[in-house]
Design a protein that fits this description.
The protein is α+β, with helices and mostly antiparallel strands. It has 3 domains: about 140 residues, Probable tRNA modification gtpase trme, domain 1 (Gyrase A, domain 2, 2-Layer Sandwich), CATH 3.30.1360; about 80 residues, Aminomethyltransferase beta-barrel domains (Alpha-Beta Plaits, 2-Layer Sandwich), CATH 3.30.70; about 70 residues, Aminomethyltransferase beta-barrel domains (Elongation Factor Tu (Ef-tu), domain 3), CATH 2.40.30.110. The strands form 4 sheets. A 6-stranded mixed sheet has the order 11-12-13-10-4-14. A 6-stranded antiparallel barrel has the order 15-18-17-16-19-20. The chain has a 5-stranded antiparallel sheet with strand order 6-7-8-5-9, with helices on one face. A hairpin with a 2-residue loop joins β11 and β12. α2 crosses α7. The longest helix has 11 residues.
Length: about 350
């Protein structure tokens, strides 16, 4: 397994470490629920160095990425970030990602388990004057997420962080260290992702925890990151997205700009858009205390009609929730159940996201 530069820090904080996407990562430190609520009510510090960090340079970088990403890279302004899907020729999801447009480069953040697949897909197909640099091991990436994130980070930067809007990015100095700061995240909260030289990982980790101590900043693992993103209705590759699923089925239409680029699988997705999706991602509240896990069957009228992709007991909402794929033409008021072990439990359709904090 790969290990981030903070592996020793995680062990020192008492983290339970697991294999995640080929990396040894902390699943929790104090417990998933406690860490989840910390992010909802205060702020948590995440190690994201397992995520792939790809940098594209050259005058044709935006046009080149328009062939791979469903969003309109060429029309994205400097200082802005966008969510997109990396599609196959069939229009299915090879990965989902966020790209950041900087003055001299475009940075693409991809999932840890898919980094090599994305590199293998892009490298032989890149056209024009563009160079792909894999910076995954040269750059560190941390995140401070939660309503107190701004309070913690603002005094440490050489620019006014309060002016950085949602899905915007800017370069600056964080505690004297050159840092790329983005107001993005995977928790449904106000938060910031920080990219800087990996050699400064341990120092920056310690400094952030020290400066954030008064506000209650503490490390948060992948377990809470998963429950936070599920409450926020965000897709996780390998659950809501995979090579058998297209972005329209996953309700990612907002990230598909058909008029702005000729990305791989575009024509296939236009056909799907015209004929209608065969399956749709929906949210459900689950009656009772049992949690449906990925793969649990969804039934209607005694027949299996779908499958759960993610489920949890929501620490914020105090109820069991799940996302599932059901037929694309299933009525909103259709009576559904989920099978857990040998029993079935009623489901109630819930709007996605389950939880949302208003962002200014």
């Amino acid at each position: 397994m790969n290990k981030t530069a903070l592996n020793a820090k995680h062990a020192a904080h008492g983290a339970k470490l697991i294999d995640f996407g080929g990396w040894e990562m902390p699943v929790h430190y104090q417990g998933i629920v406690k860490e989840h609520l910390l992010v909802r009510e205060g702020a948590g510090l995440f190690d994201l160095q397992h995520m792939g960090r790809l940098r594209f340079t050259g005058p044709d970088r935006a046009a080149a990425l328009d062939m791979f990403l469903t969003n309109a890279v060429s029309k994205t302004k400097v200082g802005h970030a966008r969510y997109a899907v990396v599609t196959t020729e069939e229009g299915t999801a090879l990965d989902d990602c966020i790209y950041y447009v900087l003055p001299e480069a475009i940075v693409l953040i991809v999932n840890a388990s898919n980094r090599e697949a994305v590199l293998d897909w892009m490298r032989p197909r890149l056209t024009g004057d563009v160079t792909l640099h894999d910076e995954t091991f040269r750059w560190a990436m941390l995140a401070v997420q939660g309503p107190k994130a701004l309070e913690i980070l603002k005094p440490l930067l050489d620019f006014d962080l309060s002016e950085l809007e949602y899905y915007r990015c800017q370069g600056g100095m964080l505690l004297g260290e050159p840092t790329f700061v983005a107001r993005t995240g995977y928790t449904g909260e106000v938060g910031y992702e920080l990219v800087f030289d990996a050699t400064q990982s341990e120092w920056m980790w310690d400094q952030l925890l020290a400066y954030g101590a008064e506000a209650g900043l503490a490390p948060v693992g992948l377990g809470a990151r998963d429950t936070l993103r599920l409450e926020a209705g965000m897709a996780l590759y390998g659950h809501e997205l995979d090579l058998e699923t297209n972005p329209l089925e996953a309700k990612l239409n907002f990230a598909c700009k058909f008029k702005s680029g000729d990305f791989y699988g575009r024509e296939k997705l236009l056909e799907v858009k015209k004929s209608g999706i065969k399956k749709q991602l929906v949210g459900f509240d689950v009656e009772g205390a049992r949690i449906p896990r990925q793969g649990a069957e969804v039934l209607s009228g005694g027949e299996v009609i779908g499958v759960v992709t993610s489920g949890t007991k929501s620490p914020t909402l105090g109820k069991v929730i799940c996302m599932a794929y059901v037929p694309g033409d299933l009525p909103d008021d259709a009576a559904c159940e989920v099978k857990i072990s040998t029993r079935t439990y009623p489901l109630k359709r819930a709007a996605l996201p389950f939880y949302s904090r208003t962002r200014s």
